[in-house]
Amino acid sequence: MITKLNTVALYVTDQERSKQFYVDKLGFDVTTDSDMGGMGRWLEVAPGGGGTAFVLANAEAFGKTDRIGDSADVTLRCADVRALHADLSGKGVPVTEPETQDFGTFVTVTDPDGHEFLISQE
């Protein structure tokens, strides 16, 4: 039986730049950072206390340069969308204005490689 979703791969052009974005701007933690030999660096980041991590995979090393900025639709959660918007805007993160629909309030964030994430309020 499957017990959890472990990782979601994001193919990126620059792992260090992506790490800085997710850690310094979004507040994620580095959960794994190790050498994979010929395949380069295995780098995982996750929200504090989160059970699922993003693998910031070097697109060139994995032969996935055609997938940079193109990944699964991922939705993240936060306690207060408006406070998050103010924080991220202050850090220069590309983030949309908060929007409220029937299903809740949310913003959309874009990372340096063009991956977009909807962040909704709990």
Automatic annotation (TrEMBL):
<protein>
    <recommendedName>
        <fullName>VOC domain-containing protein</fullName>
    </recommendedName>
</protein>
<dbReference type="Pfam" id="PF00903">
    <property type="entry name" value="Glyoxalase"/>
</dbReference>
<feature type="domain" description="VOC">
    <location>
        <begin position="4"/>
        <end position="122"/>
    </location>
</feature>
<dbReference type="InterPro" id="IPR004360">
    <property type="entry name" value="Glyas_Fos-R_dOase_dom"/>
</dbReference>
<dbReference type="InterPro" id="IPR029068">
    <property type="entry name" value="Glyas_Bleomycin-R_OHBP_Dase"/>
</dbReference>
<dbReference type="InterPro" id="IPR037523">
    <property type="entry name" value="VOC_core"/>
</dbReference>
